Each structure stands twice: as C-alpha cells, then as structure tokens.
Amino acid sequence: MSTLLLNLDFGEPPPKKALEGNAKHRNFVKKRRLLERRGFLSKKNQPPSKAPKLHSEPPKKGETPMVDGTWKTPSFPKKKKTAACSNESGQPLDKKAAVSWLTPAPSKKADSLAAKVDLLGEFQSALPKISSHPTRSQKKGFQKKSSKKNHPQKNAPQNSTQAHSENKCSGISQKLPQKMVAIDCEMVGTGPKGHVSSLARCSIVNYNGDVLYDEYVLPPCHIVDYRTRWSGIRKQHMVNATPFKIARGQILKILTGKIVVGHAIHNDFKALQYFHPKSLTRDTSHIPPLNRKADCPENATMSLKHLTKKLLNRDIQVGKSGHSSVEDAQATMELYKLVEVEWEEHLAQNPPKD
Description:
Layout lengths: L1 H9 L5 H23 L27 E2 L2 E2 L6 H12 L5 H4 L9 H19 L9 H15 L5 H23 L1 E11 L5 E10 L5 E8 L4 E3 L2 H4 L10 E2 H12 L3 E4 L2 H8 L8 E3 L4 H6 L10 H9 L12 H14 L1 H10 L5
Parallel strand pairs: 3-8, 5-7, 8-9
Antiparallel strand pairs: 1-2, 3-4, 3-6, 4-5
Helix pairs in contact: 12-13
C-alpha cells in the first residue's frame, strides 16, 4: 500500500490537461474575435495606443504568453513571427527581444503631440534668426545715410549752401501757415462829435481764409456815429453784441504768439487797445514788393481795394451797405501770400526792431 501512495503523490500528471487548456483558450479567442468583428464587443480592454493590431492567425501550440498574470493572445505580423522563429532556432535572446509583440507600439496621439512639440521647438529656435523689420523712421535714416555716402564730394560746398537756403525757406513756409492769421476791424464813432474810433466788429481768418472769429462788439462808450457807409454797422447789430472787455480777451487769445497780417493794421490794434510785437506783424500797406507787383511806388500807401483789384482782379468794398471785415481779412491774407517767401527772406536778413 505504501508503494501505491508514493506513486500517486509523485506521479507526473498526464499532458492532456495542458493541451486541453490550450484548446479551450484557442476556442475562447476565436469566439471573442468573431464577436469583435460583428461589433458585439467593444475593444475597451485593449487601447489602440498600447496594443498592436491583432492578426487573424492564432499562435502556435507551444506558445502560452502571460502578461501580468492574465492570458493574452495578440497575434503579430508574419515578419515578426519569422524573426521570432529564427531566434528560436539558433541564438538565445532576452524575453522582450524573442517575443516582439510584448513591446507596445507607439501611440498615434503621442506621435502627433511629439510632432507638434518638435515643430514648435523648430519655430522658436528660428525666431532669433529672423531680423526685425525696420520702422519708417529707421528706413528714412538709412536712406539719408546711404544718399550721403553715395553723394559725390566735388560739389559739396555749393550743394550745402543751396540746401541751407532751401531748408530756411521750407522751414519758414512750414511754420508760417500754422501761426499766421489775418485780422480786420470795423469801427464806429464815439466821443465828442463821434471823432473817436471804437471797435464795433472784429474778424480773424487763418492762413487758408477760414473764419476763426467774427463778432460784433459793443463799445464801452455811447455810439455817436455808426459810419454805416464804411463800417456796415447798424443799430440792430449792437443789440446782442459782445461787450468790449470780453471780446478783447477772446481776440487776444487768438493773436498771442502768432504772426498777424493786416492792412493799416495799426488802426486795428489801436481800436483793440493792444500792442503786437513788430517781429510778428505784417502790414500789407507797407510791403514794397507788393507795391512793385501792382506797379505802384514802393513807399506809397495803397488802399486794400486798389491792391485787391490790381493783383487779385477782384472787387471789394463795393456799394453803400458798407465793408465786410471777413472779406477784407481774406483779401489781406491772399495779398500777403503773393510776396510771402520774398518778404519773409527779407525780414530774416533784416529783422525789425520792436
């Protein structure tokens, strides 16, 4: 009996169990693949990023791979199979090298992310190499430098003098329009017998003739003579007129710091009770080049009406309704523009003394 017990305990098990286990597993795998093909099962347990595609052919009888204690039977491509067979036939290799399907295939998402990171890195590495585009001011400076380098040096003194004079003229012409106005005032008679001239209307225009200021002004004294034939002022104009002190403050704000053009302008300043610097005053009644253009004596004081007719071919101060201070101021500015460059060059060489 003891011998029988020893044979039962240490006897080798029949090999049919392993074969039966392999056969059961193969049947299970076949059924599972069939269900997966028909769409009854979803491949949740095998993400595409970590597991390679399954092959239709089952593994051999001798192969029983196990990963983390669970049975898996992923089939591998024929090329890998042949490589594995060649390894089995001759040379000893590691487990991972012998069984190629154990190494997970790289995921598509990881590849796409890595590609994007690589592209971003290449773009950032290329950024310092790209030179920044020069601004307009830099371009202008570069053009000026290049023109200076390429310019011949033989006629340097002549060109420098011409450029200096041109810069003076261009600087004068650029500064004047922004700070130049023309003024004309209309007066009424106050005081004894109306012999005192008091301001009743003031008009100021800019370099282009646009009206900056045009108001009727109420004198501080009683008006004796409206002088309507010349001034165009009537009694009804004084009803809503601006008081003299307020109007004077408004006018001086416009005139301060600007070149003021006028015809016989000292009369306007006297009515305003104001003194403007001579260096900033341009009186068209005392400009010799203007008289020369009108074929008049240089030292003669010509009327605004005569100069306008002669040089601008326009009639002003016509009729019995009186003068228009806006029209007179615009005509004064147009007359001055005819001799502006010549007269400003003369004043630059012979500045008037205040």
